[in-house]
User: What shape does this take?
Amino acid sequence: MPSSTGWLTEPAPPGWLAAAVNGGHAYRDRIDRPHPSVVGYYAGRYGHSGETIWRQRLAAGEVCRNGQRLQADAALDVGDQLVWHRPPWQEAAVPVMQQHAIVFDDGDLLVLNKPSGLPVLPAGGFLRHTVLAQLEGLVAGAPRPVHRLGRFTSGLLVCARRPATRAWLSAQLRDSIRVDAAASDPLACQKLYRALTVPLPSSWTPGSSQPVTDPIGRRPHGLLGEIWCGVPPEHPGALPALSRFTLLERRAQACLVEVLIATGRPHQIRIHAACLGAPLLGDPLYGPGGQASPEALPGDGGYRLHAHRLQLLRPDGTALAWEAPLPLELAQARSKANSREK
Assistant: This one.
């Protein structure tokens, strides 16, 4: 946030990009039906800010209609072009991806091991401090992410350079074939995650497994307008979702789990862990029933979630598989002990 002498900054950790002020951004909208008020339109479309804030932005000269800066609120007609010129703001420090983050690159398909703390695409206060922006200096050919991982989710992120490649990848990552497919099944798209949850009930023993099928949909949220949550099947716009949780290890204050997801809904693992009654350890947003705290945002950190293994099929049927090394806190204790004994 700005101070009387400039922008307040803190030193970035080693290997991180320091907090910095960006150049602002122009948000463009085309009106598809009449609306009595610019302020009302923006407050409805961008629910993170109320009408009072939008009036202030209008008064500050930040909004243009059809190329003309608006001096006061006005009605909107079909075809009107609106532009909100958001002034520069400070983006938080983020990790910097190095060459070793590249897991696979065949000139079209690119797979990265994304570090925790780095957003994938512009959103939530980030514009340039993103995977998308860092790819410009890391690899050639302008690859674009095909899917999203949460800012504090680490692990395998798939990108592609060709639009056709992005299309078939997006379809596979959104809906896998089976949640119970064996890891060696060449016909299945596999998405395996590791996470720490709050302790599961004592009836769960290592190897215990359970599917979670709660639908995911949007609910009102005080800070964002709407947010993805667990919802009943009859909820308007509810999306079917399927995850399978397997207990790998009990720890003093947590459980290490593996999660196989058969769908790719927003925040699916965080929501389904909460629906299961064992939210991700340290998750400030999702609680019992997969409901969201009104005081937290999706980009708030504290949880441990890692996209560990991924298997996809090329259009010709060739299987591709990758694995991203586990962060230390998600490695199994017995595995580390075995490694020391060898």
Q: What stands out?
A: Helices lie at 38-45, 51-59, 131-138, 163-174, 268-275, 333-341. The two ends are 51 Å apart (CA to CA).
